[in-house]
UniProtKB/TrEMBL annotation:
GO terms for molecular function: glycosyltransferase activity. Residues 1-25 form the signal peptide. Coiled coil: none annotated. It comes from the Eukaryota. Gene3D superfamilies: Spore Coat Polysaccharide Biosynthesis Protein SpsA, Chain A. InterPro entries: Glyco_trans_8, GNT1/Glycosyltrans_8, Nucleotide-diphossugar_trans. It comes from Lophiostoma macrostomum CBS 122681. Keywords: Signal, Transferase. The keyword RNA-binding does not apply. PANTHER family: GLYCOGENIN SUBFAMILY MEMBER. This is Glycosyltransferase family 8 protein.
Length: 334
């Protein structure tokens, strides 16, 4: 009987030790690496209040258009005098999926970008699209986990910058969090995990629904936004809510992937309706009037489509980037 008690005590002691050890290693103080980052990712993030982030996927083909576009965006936000951000208050991050090559990540670091290697967001079996590379697009949702920052502005890489985006963090629409609307209980499905009590998600209406290239400027507001330009207050509870929604079959249309998910979660009639940013911050389906009226960012694959005037400007920015980086390389050698 005594022997059995001693064995039971030893087992209980061992289990307690294992539990304490596991909890210590799982606690934030035990490791400085956030859970969204890859195991081999070790570089610290810049310590600023705000961040502008973009996302680069591993390309399934030999097309390097988005890699080049990411370099051009980096140049515009970090080095070009007319569009660069204040580095003391705003960081520029390039989130890279697991399939981005080591060579490309190193080039981006040399360009001055902060490369953040993140784990791909796991997809449920029913989420698919005819465009192979779109399967990685959900990885941009990792910005919701990046609570190191007070606010993050996400921008797709295929964007021409024409003004100073750092001022967007001073806008009244993004300075305060919004409460979840408990009055809309019929919109709060219990199988989607608890709703955050407060949150921030702001975006721009998508001009696809107001004439595409023929949209007016200023444009009309629409029920849907583009997921190529949005601003969030990072919140891990919100990230978990997004994952919960993804677990339900056809809760949103999977064809346009994360854009459909975000438009569902932050739908205007829902409990967390998205906030409309001022039209001068971004335009989809951009035209020349958007440029003339001072829209600060134009979202389009301008290396092969869009108005010729805008294409010419983007190509000039690309040439500026190449010359700038070549001069930096030569100066570093000499």
């Amino acid at each position: 009987m005594i022997l059995r008690s001693k064995v039971s005590f030893a087992l209980a002691l061992a289990l307690s030790f294992l539990l304490i050890t596991w909890c210590w290693h799982s606690s934030p103080s035990a490791s400085s690496k956030p859970p969204y980052r890859l195991f081999e990712s070790s570089s610290p993030l810049p310590s600023t209040q705000y961040a502008i982030a973009t996302f680069l996927t591993g390309q399934a083909t030999n097309d390097d258009s988005y890699f080049v576009a990411t370099r051009v965006l980096t140049h515009q936000l970090l080095h070009a005098p007319a569009t660069r951000c204040n580095s003391s208050s705003t960081s520029f991050l390039v989130l890279c999926s697991q399939d981005v090559s080591t060579e490309q990540k190193e080039i981006l670091r040399k360009d001055g970008a902060t490369v953040v290697e993140v784990q791909d967001v796991p997809l449920n079996w029913w989420i698919y699209s005819g465009v192979q590379r779109w399967k990685e697009q959900f990885t941009k949702l990792r910005v919701f986990e990046m609570t190191e920052y007070k606010r993050i502005l996400f921008i797709d890489a295929d964007t021409l910058i024409t003004g100073h985006l750092g001022d967007i963090f001073d806008e009244p629409e993004v300075n305060t969090l919004a409460p979840t609307l408990s009055s809309r209980k019929e919109q709060m499905r219990k199988d989607e995990s608890p709703f955050p009590t407060q949150w921030l998600f702001a975006a721009r209406s998508d001009n696809q629904f107001t004439g595409e290239r023929e949209h007016s400027t200023p444009p009309l507001q629409t029920p849907s936004f583009s997921a190529g330009f949005f601003l969030v207050a990072p919140d891990k509870e919100m990230y978990q809510h997004l994952l919960a929604v993804m677990s339900h079959f056809h809760r949103f249309d999977p064809f346009t992937m994360e854009q459909s998910l975000l438009n569902y979660v932050f739908r205007r009639e829902g409990a967390m309706p998205w906030r409309e940013l001022h039209w001068k911050w971004s335009a989809t389906w951009p035209n020349e009037k958007d440029l003339d009226m001072g829209v600060a960012s134009l979202h389009e694959k301008l290396w092969n489509t869009g108005p010729q005037r805008l294409q010419n400007i983007w190509k000039n920015r690309k040439d500026e980037m190449i010359r700038f980086q070549e001069e930096r390389r030569v100066n570093a050698v000499t």
